[in-house]
Amino acid sequence: GYSQLGRSVEGLDGAAEWASIRALLPDLKGRRVVDLGCGFGWFCRFAREQGAASVLGFDVSENMLARARATSDGAISYAKADLEVLELPEDSFDLVYSSLAFHYIKDLDALLMRAHAALATGGHLVFSIEHPIYMAPAYPRWSQDADGRATWPVNGYLEEGPRTTDWLAKGVVKQHRTIGTLLNILIGLGFTLLHVEEWGPSSEQVAAHPEWAVERERPMFLLVSARK
Amino acid sequence: GYSQLGRSVEGLDGAAEWASIRALLPDLKGRRVVDLGCGFGWFCRFAREQGAASVLGFDVSENMLARARATSDGAISYAKADLEVLELPEDSFDLVYSSLAFHYIKDLDALLMRAHAALATGGHLVFSIEHPIYMAPAYPRWSQDADGRATWPVNGYLEEGPRTTDWLAKGVVKQHRTIGTLLNILIGLGFTLLHVEEWGPSSEQVAAHPEWAVERERPMFLLVSARK
Asked: How confident is the model at residue B116 (pLDDT cuts 50, 70, 90)?
């Protein structure tokens, strides 16, 4: 299950994309941070270690929140919440952060509208999401081209909507959206886009983990930072 | 060859993505327009019909320029130029436009830097480019998934650089870049991104041209508008 994955056991450094996400973060010293989909609280604790004044973590899993709370300090608050309907106070945060949660959200327009309203002017939104190339296909698994090279079979890319997979649990439903749709939602809300990264392991990471080489054939994650 | 394609014979309306590009254009009345890769001059004439004060079209093909000049008026100027080294006057245009030319450019950073400098403050950059999903693979052609559905075999997506194809002519070299790289170049130059569209035919277009349905399985073009 999820709790055995590298990112769950080793925390942020167990997530291969963490260094790339970290490079997108603003200085957190004295800042008010909210983490949408905080899981075991690794990022919340990181933000606090970086000097964040307050950190608020939301997750839908009470089990994850229980583990998160066990290692918390007073400046971190955790709360159970369904991100589909979560209400946030307006003009109250300097960073809205989310790691690999947005592709589960059906009404992402509404969540991002609330995230925008929750940010103070000049505040940042930094998030990762499964890349639509990764999410789109009817059969999201490797095949081979005529040379035997690993190939990712893209179809349905322009048909947005639910995708059902059996990752970790049977019948998990993800919401496929194009990069264009995602970025245009942000632009329409008044965000200024700062960085868009189609993430795969770096050459250095592949040198250290040769089995990751295939992950450079297509991007696994999309990382975005934007400013209100 | 190229002159037999719908877009060459019928002009802008022969290009299926034209309505989507047109929707990204600012009001052209009284504006100074430059078209990078103007071909037969269809867009230059359109811009003039929309009331552009001046239109400057560049292309590397003297044959195309000769045909463009044959239907020109005095407010349109055409010149032969290699976009890799084209110099543009600074602060001199309200719109830099380019249709399906940028994926041939090796030093796109430098061209976009010159395009940015050539724009007046508040001026627009609107362009189309082959989508990196379309351009990346070693074998850019349809295959089928387990259900017989058309599938586009993506690999090499994160390996930027030349791709050689035999489209129209043997050994045409295109330059593959990720969407992230392209957008980050624009952001780094100081552009504000206004719209990012991964283009395929609309449902209405597919209804009118059922043979285009497959083009919704993966995006063919990327359309971008940005403001200086």
From this structure: very high
Least confident of B8-12, B110-114, B140-144: B8-12
Q: Which two tokens stand for residue A135?
A: 């999410």
CA-wise closest residue to B181 among A227, A198, A194: A198
Q: What is the pLDDT of residue B4?
A: 62
Element (H, E) at B224: strand B221-227
- Say which DSSP state A125 is in: E
The residue among B20, B144, B151, B197 with the most chain A CBs within 10 A of its CB, best to mutate, is B151
| C-alpha span between A145 and A153 (Å, rounded) | 10
**DSSP letter, residue B128:** E
- The ranges of chain A with pLDDT < 70 are 1-5, 167-168
User: How many domains does chain A divide into?
Assistant: 1
Which residue of B158, B194, B217 is in closest CB contact with A156?
B217
Query: Among all residues of chain A, which has the CA nearest to that of B218?
Result: A157
Enclosing domain of residue B116:
2-130+178-211+223-227
Q: Give domain status of residue B108, yes or no.
A: yes
Q: How far apart are the first and last CA of chain B?
A: 37
In a domain, B136, yes or no: no
Q: Do B154 and A196 touch (CB under 8 A)?
A: no
pLDDT at B167: 65
Q: What is the CA radius of gyration of chain A?
A: 18
Please name the member of A138, A143, A158 whose beta carbon is closest to the beta carbon of B200.
Answer: A158
Q: What are B152-161's pLDDT values in tens digits?
A: 999 999 999 9
Q: Which of A27-31, B9-13, B140-144 has the highest mean pLDDT?
A: A27-31
Read off the pLDDT band of B2 (50, 70, 90): low
Q: What angle do CA A92, A97, A101 make, to 5 degrees?
A: 125
* B46, two tokens: 């359109």
Task: Examine residue A48 and state whether it is found in any structural domain, yes or no.
Answer: yes
B157 contact residues in A (CB cutoff 8 A): 133, 152, 198, 200, 216-219
CATH number, position B11 = 3.40.50.150
**Chain A nearest-CA residue for B159:** A216
Does the pLDDT of residue B193 top 90, yes or no? yes
Q: Is residue A161 part of a domain?
A: no
Q: Say if the Cβ atoms of B157 and A193 lie within 8 Å.
A: no
Say yes or no for a CB contact (<8 Å) between A155 and B145.
Answer: yes
Residue of B nearest to A137 (CA): B151
